Amino acid sequence: MTSQPDSDPGLTASLNDTRSVVLVEGISDKLALETLARRRGRHLRAEGVVVVSMGGSKSVGRFLDLYGPLGAGLRLAGLCDAAEEGDFVRGLERAGLGSNLNRAALESLGFYVCVDDLEDELVRALGVEAVEEVIAAQGELGPLRIFQRQPAWQGRPREAQLRRFFGTHGGRKIQCAPLLVDALDLSRVPRPLDGVLHHV
């Protein structure tokens, strides 16, 4: 099979020896799943599993056409935020993978939805203190405290502050996602992440 472009600049997702493709919205999701797979003792590439960052949920239809039953015919799975669930449902239905898909039907296809988003899942699984330890290790505790003192965020739940903080600086989600997964107790892994990996 030929190589097809991943949406990450400069990267390609080779279809040679690939049996499964996991579709995710962005690079932070890709890194989180790959880090979790490593911690679970899995070698995704050796297993023929490729995690593809699509550059946003609006591209899911194109990637389903490329890798799904009308394209390469590979086993599919995916991970998305709650706000983008509709994009995934519409894409899967257009690709002929179901109709009137609800959350349970999505999961039977290997597509899992984060409650809010990946960062929310990881913050809840780790707890505030552990997340702040990861942030402190990156030298970012000062910026976090400044952010928490902003009028719009003062007094808000610390979990909500942390989730928003990851999105306030370009690259912070990408930098922190694998570090947060590395800090997880493997008995407390967010269900959507484990669900995707179990499917492939």
From TrEMBL:
Top-rank taxon, per record: Bacteria
Key words of the record: Endonuclease, Hydrolase, Nuclease
CDD domains to which the protein is assigned, alphabetical: TOPRIM_OLD
Originating species: Candidatus Amunia macphersoniae
Listed InterPro entries: TOPRIM_OLD
Protein name: ATP-dependent endonuclease
GO MF term (any one): endonuclease activity
UniProt domain OLD protein-like TOPRIM: residue ranges: 19-71
